[in-house]
Amino acid sequence: MTVSDTAVIQNGKFIFRGKIAEPDIFYLMAEGSGAYTRIFLENERFRIKASLDNNLSNPEITGGLNQSLINAENQFQNELAQKYNFHALNSEYNNPLTGLERQKEIASLFEKIKKEVLEYQYSLMDQHPQSYYTLKFLAANVDKIPLEELERRMEYFYNSPLFENNKDIERIVSSIARLEQIQPGKKAPDFTMPDQNGTLVKFSDIYKANQVTMLDFWASWCAPCRKMHPELREIYNRYNPKGFEIVAVSFDNSREKWEEAIREDRLPWIHLSDLQYWNSAPRDLYLITYVPQYVLVDSTGTILRLKISEAQAEEFLQSLFE
Which of 23, 51, 79, 156 has the greatest number of CB atoms lying within 10 Å of its CB? Predict the structure, then answer.
């Protein structure tokens, strides 16, 4: 991480002075403590009140439009966490004694919370469509936003001299070009990777032999991925005899941990990995920035569904096979 500036704390206070080329997100760190907090800095007067006693978490930050939008977003998320007793739900979900049905109930609540947060974030962007807050949100979530929605919101930035040569815009434009190639109805990018035995397997050879194939992007170190495996195993056992296959592409970098997770979770489908972690070739082909993530492809290699949940995948398969 590059250090942009430093200041000495005297009597519990510090001062930074200067200007930046354009609003951007910076991290305020306390040397020697490991504590840090995030600030959306711009050329305005800012005031920060924070404590090392709680590692600079939950700071009071005032100054600038974009930081005020971050503050509003944080307040909304905190209120939602209290409303749904989020921390207790999270502990229950991760408890090994929690049954699969209860985990499904909690996962459904998590999706509801996520949806409410997203709707609020969208409302902030609607109010400030040409703000750096909106641009940063789009850049951070470029692969999670429907393509038409992303392109509509980007129209506010393309011809504005305020955002000329902006690096976030360049990255988003590049991502949109990639996303346009992997929408439903498009041909799924093909790739070849080694299986557990080191044998090279071509993805197209798999989907040609099945009515529907799911690409499952995961990793042994991904707790949410592994939490989903019992449900995914149920889906596989139900529909595999009818022409459904799963090709699991792992972003592991340890063969031992990869194979151990396959054994422990009792995953009977096809497993591929080049053990290159996030540098795995299919990551760029399918613009994967998080796991788990699922893609459904038919026997011709046409993408049917993209970035769907297990519940959505099961609903689609049910409509197809039953």
Answer: 23
Show which of 156, 179, 202 is a domain's final residue.
179
Q: What is the pLDDT of residues 20-33, one digit of tens each?
A: 999 999 999 888 78
- 14 and 109 housed in the same domain: no
pLDDT-based confidence at residue 302 (cuts at 50, 70, 90): very high
pLDDT for position 160: 92
Residues in the chain: 322
Burial zone of 23 (CB within 10 Å; 0-12 exposed, 13-18 middle, 19+ buried): buried
Question: Positive or negative CA dihedral for 7, 13, 17, 21?
Answer: positive
Q: Rounded to two decimals, what is the model's pTM? A: 0.82
275: nearest Cα among 193, 210, 217:
193
The reply to whether 56 and 82 lie within a common domain is no
Does residue 185 lie in a domain region? Answer: no
Task: State residue 1's pLDDT score.
Answer: 62
Single-letter residue type at 56: L
- Rounded Cα gap, residues 45 and 96, in angstroms: 49
- Is the predicted pLDDT of residue 3 greater than 80, yes or no? no
